[in-house]
Amino acid sequence: MVRSLEELKKRYSYGGSVKPLPMRGGPGGRGGRGGRRAVSGEKGKTVSRLLSYLGAYKYRFIAVFICLFLSTGASLIGSYMQKPIIDRVAGTVSGKSEFGDKAITKVVEILSPLTGGLGLSENAVYLLSGIVMLAFIYIVAMVCTYIQSKLLIGISQGAIRTMRNDLFAKVQTLPLRFHDQTTTGETMSRFTNDIDNIGVMFDSTAVSLVSGVVTLIGTFLLMLYVNPLLTLVTVVFIPVFTLGGSKLAKKSSTYYKAQQAALGSVNGYIEEFVAGQKVVKVFNHEDECIEEFRLLNNELKDKQTKAMFFGGIMGPVMGNISKMSYAITAGLGGVLCYLTLTGEIGAASMMALTIGGLTVFVQYANQFARPINEISMQMSNIFSALAGAERVFKIMDLDPETPDDPDASDMQPEGIKGHVVLDDVSFGYLPDKTVLKHISLYAKPGQKIALVGSTGAGKTTITNLLNRFYDIQSGSITIDGVDIKKIKRSVLRQNIAMVLQDTHLFTATVRENIRYGRPDATDKEVEEAAKTAYAHSFIMRLENGYDTMIEGDGANLSQGQRQLLNIARAALSKAPILVLDEATSSVDTRTERHIEKGMDAIMEDRTTFVIAHRLSTVRNANAIMVLEHGEIIERGDHDELLAKGGRYYELYTGLKELD
Amino acid sequence: MVKWSKYVKPYTSAFILGPLCMIVEVLGEVVLPKMLGSIINSGVGSDVAAGKGTAFIIMMAVLMAVTAVLMLLGGVGGAYFGAKGSVGFASDLRMDAYTKIQSFSFANIDKFHTGSLVTRLTNDITQLQNFVNMLLRMFLRTPGMLIGAIIMAVSINPRLSCVLLLVLPVIFIVIYVVVFVGFPRFSKMQVKIDALNTTVQENLTNVRVVKSFVSEDRENAKFNKASGELKDAGLSAMNVMIIMQPFMMLVMNATVLTVLWFGGNQVIDFINGKLGMEPGDLSAFLTYINQILMSLLMVTVLFVQSSRAIASGRRVSEVIKEEPDINDIAAAYKDKEIEKGEIRFENVSFRYYKNSADKVLDNINFTIDAGTTVGIVGSTGCGKTTLVSLIPRLYDTDEGAVYIDGVNVRDYGLVSLRDGIGMVLQKNVLFSGSVEDNLRWGDGDASDEEVKKAAEYAQADGFITEMDGGYAADIVQGGQNVSGGQKQRLCIARALLKKPKILILDDSTSAVDTATEARIRQSFRDDLKDSTKIIIAQRISSVIEADKIVVMNDGRITGIGTHDELLKSNEEYREIYYSQTDGRKV
After folding, report:
1. Are A56 and A143 in the same domain?
2. Which of A477, A541, B338, B516 has the fewest C-beta atoms under 10 angstroms from its C-beta?
C-alpha cells in the first residue's frame, strides 16, 4: 500500500514535527508574541550585542580596518599606476597632468643617483621607477593583508569562543522547563549552525563588505578621473546589475525554499524508516518503502534542479553582463582614444583618453560588477548570521533558575537528617494545567516511601519538586523543618541523590562515570560502590575493566547494565536523601534479587523515595502512596493496601494496566 | 569505491554539454583580452598613421559584445546542465543507497547504526551533489582557461612567456603545502568540532544528572577546554591559508612586475621602430598572466573541495557496496511456503561478532511442534531474542541450522519465509500514519472486517474505537501518542493480520496488564489454533499455560518442560518464579 506524494509531503513536511519554541520562560512566559515589527526593531540591538563581543578586541579591530583601507587603497592605486607606465612606454603621454605621472617622476628623481650608471634610456628609467614604485605599493598591500587576516582570525576565533562559552554557561543555568520544551537537536544547532554563521560573519563578511564598498567607491572615483564620459556609460549598467541581481536572488530564494521543503520531507522519511528498518524487514515491506521513497526523491530532484539552476546562473549572468560593459567601454574608449590621438579631441579635454587610460579603464569596467556581486552575496551571509545571533541571544536572555534566597542556608550533609515534609503541594508544568493537587506526605529520616500509579499520575513530578527542578505553585516542602526555597540550590541538590530511569552516560571511562557525583572518591570507593550495585562483575568483564571508555552513550552496554552503573553512582554519594525513579526497570527480576541486598545497604539510613513499575520492589516500603491524576488516592503499607482491596490491590494483582 | 559511472550514464548529455558550455565561456574569456589588444594595436595604433580608425574599433567592440552574449549563453547553459547532471546523479545515488538499505539484513543494519545511515543518505550525498556540480562547471573551465591563457600568452610573446617557467614551480609548491599541510589540520579541526558537539549533546541529554549532582561548574570547565581546543585547531588550520594568501600575492605581483619590466622595454623598442612588442599585446599579455595564476588558485580550491567529497563518497560507497549477508540466492525451494509451522533447532550456535569468543547461542537443540505454544524465559542477555531471530532469518546461524516443516530456513525464499512468520519485535515501531495504515502493514489487501478482527484478537479494537477518529485516528512518529500497552497491542494486531503460520512475540506484552494479556492469550488459543506460537516473556504468568517452556541461561537451554515440570526440576526456573511471586501462587 503505497501512499500518494501529496500525503507523504504533508506528513513529512519540513519542520512539521518540530514544535515552535516558546520565546521566553516557556508557556505563559512573557513576550511570546513580539510580532514581526518587534523582531526587526531588535536588529539594531542584536548588532550592537554582537559588536560587544568584539569589544575586547577594539584596538586590534581598529588595526584591522586601518590595514584594510591601506591594502584596498594600495591595490586600487596599484592598478591605476599601469596607466602612466603604459602611456610612457607607448609614447602617448597625455597632455593632462595627473597624479600617477607626477608620483613616478618623483621616484625617477629619487632613484636618479642609482639609475644614472645603468645606461638606460629615459623611458626605461621611467619604466623601472614605475616598477619600483609598484613593488613598494604591492608590498604594502601584501603586508597589510597578512596583518589584517592574521589579526582577524584571532579576533573571530576568540570572540566565537567567548560566545560559545557564554552560551554553554547560560544553558547550564536554565531551568528544566527550557530543556523540556526544546529538543536537544534544536539547542545543538545554536552551538553549531548559528555560531558558525556568526563566525563566518566575523572573519570574512565584515571585511569583504568594507573592502567591497571601498573598492567600489575607489574604482568609481578613479574611473571618473580617467574619463567621465566612459564612466557614465559604465554607471548605466549599475541599475542593470542591481535589478537583475535582486530579481535573480528573489527567484532563486523561492526555489531554494521549495528545495528545502522537499529535502526536509526526504530527510524526515529517511529518519523514520531507517529507524524502523527492522520492522520493515519483518513485514516484507521493502518494496512499498522503495516506491514511497521514489516519489519523494523525484520531487526533491525536480525542486533541487530548479534551485540549483537559478542559484547557479547568478554568477555567469552578472559576470557576463559586466563583460558587455567591458565590450562597450572598449569600443567607445577605443574611439575616444583614436580621436585623442588624431587630435580631434584636445589632449586637455575631459573626453581625452590615452592608451594607458583605455587599458586601466576596461579593467575597471570588467571588475566593476565584482564588488557589487560580493556585497550582495555578503548581505545574505549577514542576514543568516543576524538571524543566528538573534536565536543565540534569545537563549542568553532566558530567565535562569530563580536565584537563591539571599539568606538561604547552606546546610551541610552531615547536618541534614532527611526529614521531608510536603504540605498541601500543588503544581502544574503549565499554570492552567495542574499536575499535582494538594499533595501532603512526610518521610521521617531513614524511611522508605514508595510512589505508585500509572504513567502521568505525577510520581516523577513529586521527586522533581524535591530538588527544585521545578518550583511549586502553592503549599510548602520542608527538609528538617527548613523550607527548601530557603536552602541554597546547590546544597539542596548535593543532599539528594537521584537514580533516573533514562540516565545517559558520558564519554569517559567507567570509573569516571561512576565518580561523576563525587569527583574526590578514591578508586577503592568506586569499586566498593560498583560491588554494592552488582556492577563490579560485568565491569571486570569489559575490555579494560574500570578504565574502559564509554562511548556513544554506552551503546556497548545493555540498558540494564547502564542502570547498574547509575546505582553505583548513587551508592558513592553520601546524600541523606535518595530518589530511585524506576532505577531497576530494565534489570531482569533475578539480577534485581541479587542487588536487593546492595540496595538495602544504599538505602540504609537514608530517606528514600522509590518509584517503581514492578510492585515487588516497593513491597517493603514504610509507606506506599498510590497516585492517580495528581492526587494521592490511597496510602498505607503493603499489607494494609492489599487488605483494603482498592486500586493498589488491582495493580498488584495485575487486574489493571500500569502503563 | 562503487562504479560512479553508473550514476553518470542517464545524464550523459548533461555531463557532456555542461562542460562544453563552460568551454564556450572559457573561449570567450581567452579571446576577449586579445580583441581588446587588437583595438589598442590596430585600431588606435601608437601613432596615428597606423590606426585603422573608428570603423575597426567599433567592429571589434561589436564582436566583443557578441562574444559576451555567447559567454552568457554558455554560462547559463553550464548552470543548467550542471544542475541537471549533479542533481540527477545525486538523486539516483540516493535512490540506490536507499534501495540497498532495504536489502540489508539485521546484521548489516547493526553494523552501520541508524544515525550513520541517515547522515550518509542525507549530508554525504548532498556533499557529493555539490561536488559534481562544481566538477561539471569547473572541470573543463579551470584547466581550459589555464591552457587557453598559456597558449595565448606564448603566441603573443614566447620569450616573455618564459617567466611562467619560473613561476609555475613556485605555485605548485604552494599548492602542495596547502594540500599536505593544510588538509591534516583541517581534518584535525573537524575532530575537535565533533568533540565539542559530543560535549554539548551529552550535557543536554544528561541535564538532570548534571543538575542533580550540581556539576555545572565541572561541565563548564569541560566545555571551555573543548572550546579552547577547537579554537586552537581552527587557528592552526587557518594559519596555513593566511600565510598562503600573501605568498600567492607576492608571486603574482612579482610576475606582473617582471613582465612589465621586460615587456615594457620591448614596447619601448617597438615604439622606437626596433623589433619589439606592441602596447596592446602587453596589456593582453598581462591579462593572460593573471588568468593563468587565477586558474591555478582555483585548482587549489578544487583540491580542498574534492578531499571532502572523497570522504563522503567513501561513506556512501560503503553503503552501496555492502553486501547483504543474508539472501536467498542459494535457496533450494524459493517458492515454498510454510505449511504447518513445525520448527526444529539443530546444533545451533551463534555469535554477533565473528571473532568474539563469547557465543550468544551455544549448541541449541529442540523442536517446536506445529500449532503448539512455546514460552521462552531467562535473564536479560541470555539469548532469547537472538534465538527467535534465527527463525525468520533476521540473522543466520554460525553453526547448525533451523528447520521449518523439515526444510532448512535457508532453502526458503526470504519473502515467503517472512510472509509465513508474524513477528512482534521487542523494540517495536509504529509509523506515522493512521491506525489502519499501521495495521495494514500486515496485509495491504485485507478487508475492513479482517483488520477489525485482528485488532479484536489483540484486544486493541476497544481503545481504537474510543480514539478520536477510530481506525482513521492519527499515530504520530514513533507512536508517541498511544500508551506503551496500547502500542504493544497494535503491534500484535499488525502481526496477526499476516495470518502467520508462526507467531513470535518477543517480550511484546510487558506493558499490557495481566487481565488483558490473559484475554489475548485466550484468543490465541481459540482463533489461532493452527499457528505455532512462540512467546518470550519476563513474567512467568505470560507463559505459564504454554505447552512447553524453554528456560535459557547464558546462551544455553537449561530446561524444557511444562510449568509444573520445570518448577520441580529446574533451579533457574524456580528462582525466576519466586523472584516474581515471592512464593505466592500466580
Report:
1. yes
2. A541
